[in-house]
Amino acid sequence: MISLNSIRDSFEGVIPSVIATTDPAGMPNISYLSHVYYVDERHVALSNQFFSKTAANVRSSGLATVMVVDGRSGAQHILDLTFRHSEENGELFERVASHLAVMSAKQGMANVMKLRSIDIYRVEDCRAIIPVAPLAEAPASSSSSPRLPLAANLANAIASQVDAEAMLDCALDGLHKQFAFPNVMILVPDDSGEKLTTIASRGYARFGIGSETPMGSGTIGIAASTRRPLRISDIRRGQRYASAVRAAFEAEDHTLRNPLPTLAEPLSQLAVPMLCRGRLTGVLFVESPNSFAFGHEDEDALLLVASQLAVGLTLSELERFDSRPSEITTASPAQPKHTSFAVRYFSADGSIFINNEYVIRGVPGRLLYTLLRQYLDTRRSSFTNREIRRDTSLGLPDFKDNLETRLILLRRRLEEKAGPVRISRPERGHIELVVEGLPTIELMT
C-alpha cells in the first residue's frame, strides 16, 4: 500500500476527487467530491454535504472507492475505503468546515454548501493508476529549504527583541526574506472584536496600515474566528466570485476608506491565528499569485512564528506595569506654521479625518483626537502611556487594553499618510506628537 503521507498534495482539493459506491442491487453510483481530507496514515475524511445517493450506498455497504488527483503532477491514486463513523463537531470537523466555508464562499455557495458532518474512513489500500503517457515533472515546491529550522531561528530572533514594534518588523522581515514569502501581513483584532486591522505588511504596493477585514469572513477572518490555521492551495475556481465579493465588500464605508492591500488574483493563501493562552492577539497572513505556494511545513513553521509573536506582544503589554518612563519636562511648545489643517472627528465610531481624508477609527482614532485636542488647548505635545491609560474618554479596558499595539497602529498609519501629524517615540512608555500647522477640530456627534 502506498503511504498516504507520500501523496499529501492529492488531498489539497485542487482537482475534485471522484467517489464510487454501489447500492444493494449492485448498481454503481459515481459522484464528484470537492475534497478528500488527510487525517492520518490510515484514515481520510469526506465532507458530507449533498450526495444523498452516495450516503445511502455507504450506509448499506460501508464501502467506497475514491480516486484522488495530485494537482501539482497530475498523478492519480485509488483508495479503497471502509466507513468508520461520522463526526458533527470537534477539531477535525471545525477544520474541514473552515476550509469549506472559504471555498464555498469564493464559489458563490456560502449558504448552500453547509457542512452537516464529516465521514471518517479507514483506508484499506492505496494504489497508483498507471498513466497512459508519462506525466510532466511537477514544479518545484517553494519549501525548498527546511522550514522548521528557519522558523526556530526566526522565533528566537523575535524573542530577543524588547520592543513590540521591533518584534513585528523582525517577524515580517524574516518571513519575507528568509522564507521568501512574497506577500506577508499581520492583522490585530479591533476593540469591538468584529474586525481585524492591518498593523504591518511586506510585499504589497502599499502597506495598508489601518485597513480592515471582518471577523469570521474570508481566509483571514475565518482563521481568526475559529482560532485555527487555514491554508488554501488553489482558489482559481473562485476568482470570479471573489471579485464580486470584493466589490460588494468595498461598498461598505469603512473598508472603502482603506481596503486591505491584498493581491488582485491570489491563488494560494495561508492564515494562522496568533494565540497566547487561548486569546487571539492577531493573524499572520501570507498569500501568493501561484498555486501550491504553501505546504504543510510552511503551515507548521508559521504556527511556531505566530505563537512566539503572540507571546512577545502579550508580554510587552504586561510590562506596562513595570515600565516607568522618565518624567516629562515641560517641552517648548511647538511653533505652528502659518498653515492650518482641518480635523473632523466622529465620536460615534471614533473615526477621524484630516483635510477630508480618512485616517483611522476605533481606539486609535479616539486616541488621536484626544492628543490633538490637548495639543490645541495647551500646546502640549509629550505624553506618557501611563497617563493615556488613565484617560477614561478612550474607553480602554482596565486589563489587556492593547495600548502598545494601538499606538504602533496609529503611528504607522500617520506615517503612511505623510500628513501634517505624526507620532514619534523618544523612549518606551513615552510618545511625542509632531504637528505641522495649526489644527482646527470639528466634533461630529
Describe the protein's architecture and organization.
The protein is α+β, with helices and mostly antiparallel strands. About 30% of the residues lie in helices and about 30% in strands. It has 11 helices and 20 strands. It has helices at about 50-60, 90-105, 145-160, 165-180, 220-225, 240-250, 255, 295-320, 360-380, 385-390, 405-415, and strands at about 15-20, 30-35, 35-40, 45-50, 65-70, 75-85, 115-130, 185-190, 195-200, 210-215, 230, 270-275, 280-290, 340-345, 350-355, 355-360, 380-385, 420-425, 430-435, 440-445. The strands form 4 sheets. It has a 7-stranded antiparallel beta sheet with strand order 2-1-5-6-7-4-3. Helix 2 (about 90-105) runs antiparallel to helix 5, helix 3 (about 145-160) runs antiparallel to helix 4 (about 165-180) and helix 4 (about 165-180) runs antiparallel to helix 8. The longest helix is centred in the C-terminal third of the chain and has 23 residues, at about 295-320. It is elongated and about 85 Å long.
